[in-house]
């Protein structure tokens, strides 16, 4: 598992040269935007239950057969497992965003996930759709794109650092895309 600093050290070691130039500028930028990164992670983690339950609900609305007898979200223990897995994926995306590196997501979450789901008979198309919905919701929380009109009575405005967080939202979206790619 790497973070931005460990990755820079490993990269310099393989080149047998000290950290400098672009790598140093990249690390300075990583530190300078630390509060925005923490706010982005907090936006995801603080809303994790809503993000996951909305994603699973959206997936089920698009494929109602999942909750009917014989469906993969029936009975309630399967639904609970689906919600649990969604929260695990979201947690590892948050870890990757915090570290600024996808290695924790790849090593601890995605390694063997598709094979496990296939062995258990979990429909990966439905899982991919839930991850896409989590991606949209999470990036909206990071960029403050969520609004009372979209959230209704469950809307909760969070205080975040001022400035453009689109780069962090793009980074988080990339981590969700890794999950989709691993399941496809």
TrEMBL record:
GO cellular component terms given for this protein: phycobilisome; plasma membrane-derived thylakoid membrane
Main subcellular location of this protein, as a coarse class: membrane
GO annotation, biological process: photosynthesis
Binding-site list for (2R,3E)-phycocyanobilin 1: 35, 39
Family per similarity comment: Belongs to the phycobiliprotein family.
Protein location: Cellular thylakoid membrane
Keywords assigned by UniProt, alphabetized: Antenna complex, Bile pigment, Chromophore, Electron transport, Membrane, Photosynthesis, Phycobilisome, Thylakoid, Transport
Residues bound to (2R,3E)-phycocyanobilin 2: 72, 77, 82-88
Pfam family, one: Phycobilisome
Name of the protein in question: Phycobilisome protein
PANTHER family (alphabetical): C-PHYCOCYANIN BETA SUBUNIT, PHYCOBILISOME 32.1 KDA LINKER POLYPEPTIDE, PHYCOCYANIN-ASSOCIATED, ROD 2-RELATED
Database matches in SUPFAM superfamilies: Globin-like
Membrane topology, record value: Peripheral membrane protein
Keyword set includes Electron transport: yes
Organism expressing this protein natively: Rubidibacter lacunae KORDI 51-2
Highest taxon in the source lineage: Bacteria
């Amino acid at each position: 598992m790497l973070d931005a600093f460990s990755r820079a050290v490993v990269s310099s070691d393989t080149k047998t040269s000290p950290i400098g130039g672009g790598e140093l500028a990249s690390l300075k930028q990583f530190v300078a935007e630390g509060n925005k990164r923490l706010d982005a992670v907090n936006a995801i983690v603080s809303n994790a239950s809503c993000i996951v339950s909305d994603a699973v609900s959206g997936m089920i609305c698009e494929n109602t057969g999942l909750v009917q007898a014989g469906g993969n979200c029936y009975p309630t223990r399967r639904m609970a497992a689906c919600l649990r897995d969604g929260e695990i994926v979201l947690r590892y995306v948050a870890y990757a965003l915090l570290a600024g590196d996808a290695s924790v997501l790849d090593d601890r979450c995605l390694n063997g996930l598709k094979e496990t789901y296939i062995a258990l008979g979990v429909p990966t198309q439905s899982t991919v759709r839930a991850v896409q919905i989590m991606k949209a919701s999470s990036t909206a929380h990071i960029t403050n794109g969520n609004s009372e009109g979209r959230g209704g009575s469950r809307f909760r405005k969070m205080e975040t650092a001022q400035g453009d967080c689109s780069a962090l939202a793009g980074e988080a979206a990339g981590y969700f895309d890794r999950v989709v790619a691993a399941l496809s």
